[in-house]
Amino acid sequence: MSKYWSDMVKRTDPYKPGEQLNNPRIIKLNTNENPYEPSPSVKKAIVDEMDSRLQLYPSPTADGLRSTIAGALNVSMEEVFVGNGSDEVLAFSFMAFFQPGKTIRFPSITYSFYPVYSKLFAIPYEQVALNDDFTIDGEALFGSEGGVILPNPNAPTSIYEDLSSIERIIENNPDTVVIIDEAYIDFAGPSAVELIHKYDNLLVIQTTSKSRSLAGMRVGYAIGNRNLIEALTRIKDSFNSYTVDRLAMVAAKAAFEDKAHLQETVGKIKATRDWTVHELEQLRFDVLPSSANFLFATHQSVKAVDLYDYLKKEGILVRHFNSPRIDNYLRISIGTDEQMRVLVEKIGKYV
Ligand SMILES: Cc1ncc(COP(=O)(O)O)c(C=O)c1O
């Protein structure tokens, strides 16, 4: 703390990302990255772009990428906003739709960036307890004063809420914006994007970081009514006109155009997920029903933190949260078949 710090800096409580270790031998199952490389056309698009245009600023409106995303999701370009990872799109959304003095609501166990943004932008928040089975208590999110945000599937629980429950949350907050953070939706059921023409208070946020293997390029996007998109654009253009760089833009566009690659890699991850759940259950884990590219699991007798330490020593990184109700769980990203085989083998030896 220093006397030179602004009040904004003083009230921050920064997010702590999962460790990124440089050792390539580590099996990294701690940040829900995709174990497969992006579509080969992504590399080609990046090389072509590097060969010619890096001395020029990227398009501030990102029309090419927005129209590709719009086409893929069956909406119009004016209903799409793109940003530097969905974390940035989330931050802009907090600024655009939530405000100091009006309490927003989100689940008590959820993406840990939401309280971080709330503190940064001085937005009061209420954390709504999850049900005993870790599903979201939808009714507790009805009638918020300042707005609602929740991920679907939720993180770190991995549980997907069906679209009718999501729709009831949107209907029951008619005067505020409801943000559905769909970072993991491609591993789950139908998206709330289909509801944006029915509800002008719905903003859906997705990312290319998970299903499209582009965590390193940082491209996230929001889909919603054009008035909401205009608000996000006004925030962006009051902050930095060029949040998505040229390479990220062409990479994300190429990833969206290769639907076969998406289907193939998502299919492999889901199959590996099913196999891993089965194996962990054999080893006496309780695993929450996952609709994401990660599992949330607790062992019937071994403590999560001991298992976390053991796995780290053995060269496998998973995520442990030292928070109430979930401190005896591990969040395990789904890797390749081989990585999961090694994980199961090591855990088998320990338990
Ligand atoms: C629920 C949720 N939302 C958003 C993000 C951020 O994704 P990105 O900024 O890479 O698009 C993550 C990343 O793990 C997440 O788990």
UniProtKB/TrEMBL annotation:
Belongs to the class-II pyridoxal-phosphate-dependent aminotransferase family. Histidinol-phosphate aminotransferase subfamily. The keyword Cell membrane does not apply. It holds the Pfam family Aminotran_1_2. The modification N6-(pyridoxal phosphate)lysine is found at K210. Residues 25-347 form the Aminotransferase class I/classII large domain. It comes from Sporosarcina oncorhynchi. It catalyses: L-histidinol phosphate + 2-oxoglutarate = 3-(imidazol-4-yl)-2-oxopropyl phosphate + L-glutamate. Pathway: Amino-acid biosynthesis; L-histidine biosynthesis; L-histidine from 5-phospho-alpha-D-ribose 1-diphosphate: step 7/9. Its EC number is 2.6.1.9. The keyword Amino-acid biosynthesis applies. This is Histidinol-phosphate aminotransferase.
